[in-house]
């Protein structure tokens, strides 16, 4: 009989290597361009709105077009927020589906940490905002503004400064941001939906169901998918639910193949088509329409004294760190798990700072909470821009320092990563033994 005390204890590791390192690296490379375009669009918007030609910027945002009988005669700013961001959230929906089926979220043990960190990273900023505005007698309706992490902006910064950071860190941020987006769109649907019209919402189920039938048959022809997607979006918009919810729902319906299954990887095909559209056009145009605010001494002083702006800025910069890093530490403390030997807590600190970049979705929630064009809305934009830039700069300083340390260690060990994946992190049979095997092909089924 073998003495149980002689058996080696299996230590639970926090932030092990990702299940699909090549996907993580490819996504980071793609988001670099998107993040740069997003930043450029935001800077152009602020410069334009602050210039002597600021009136033309507001006039452009107010240009209206669309079919009046369908109640879709909207101004350009609304088209950008409700229409273009639906494409962004469609891509987010496919990312979520992929993560739950073949990514890190398929394993509850691996999924628990980024999901809890995402919840903590939303709860703490919301509490900070609420506390600041209770003390300052400000409106509480903007509690959700500092809860969102901008996936394109954050991954773009990480791709620039974190070329040698462990893939576990990059996968953690990706998963955290994707789950964060899911929670954010849930918040939008539940808390920022007014005057719900049930008939259009029920009718929206028809094109959504037909969309699922078409993609389930591996059909990706545009003349089938686009009309169904647009019909679903228009009906959800008419129902009073924010139209971007339709994008997430449609993205979650795209089937994903598990390892061992045969057939076309439909999510890869559609991501290849829609990600450049989302990152290269939809999100930058939204930033151009949403980020424009006249920044001068007067508006800066007014924002600095507004509890709304203070709560948003402190929530994003400090709240995200406390929420994400604090939740990770609590998981390690109460589950007796240990950080992976190749990582340090300062690495998680840098990632937590990066999660404070709350650009795209924060601006969207700000408009929903306070209404576009209001004085408070201007303060929201200033706060989101200031906090996002501050978080990006602080995270870049910390992560660039850690990146140098990892690069020097890799060079000393003769580690090469021409494919973007350090040699010691290549997934092989030994890694499968440590982290657990993939689901058996015979048990796999399509989702």
Structure description:
This protein is an all-alpha fold and 447 residues long. It has a domain at 15-73 and 108-181 and 289-407: Na+/H+ antiporter like domain (Na+/H+ antiporter like fold). It is 68% helix and 2% strand. The chain contains 17 helices and four strands. The chain has helices spanning 21-50, 54-61, 76-101, 108-135, 151-161, 167-191, 198-203, 205-216, 222-239, 244-253, 266-290, 297-305, 307-335, 345-354, 360-370, 375-412, 429-435, and strands spanning 13-14, 64-65, 74-75, 338-339. The strands form two sheets. It has a two-stranded parallel sheet. The protein has a two-stranded antiparallel ribbon with strand order 2-3. The radius of gyration is 22 Å and the shape is globular. 47% of the residues are buried. The model is unreliable at 1-11 and 423-447 (pLDDT under 50).
Write the layout of secondary structure elements.
Layout: E1 13-14, H1 21-50, H2 54-61, E2 64-65, E3 74-75, H3 76-101, H4 108-135, H5 151-161, H6 167-191, H7 198-203, H8 205-216, H9 222-239, H10 244-253, H11 266-290, H12 297-305, H13 307-335, E4 338-339, H14 345-354, H15 360-370, H16 375-412, H17 429-435
Parallel strand pairs: 1-4
Antiparallel strand pairs: 2-3
Helix pairs in contact: 1-2, 1-5, 1-6, 1-11, 3-6, 3-10, 3-11, 4-6, 4-13, 5-6, 5-16, 8-9, 9-10, 12-16, 13-14, 13-16, 14-16, 15-16
In short:
With 447 residues, the chain is an all-alpha fold. It has helices spanning 21-50, 54-61, 76-101, 108-135, 151-161, 167-191, 198-203, 205-216, 222-239, 244-253, 266-290, 297-305, 307-335, 345-354, 360-370, 375-412, 429-435; strands at 13-14, 64-65, 74-75, 338-339. Helix 3 (76-101) packs across helix 6 (167-191) and helix 5 (151-161) packs antiparallel against helix 6.
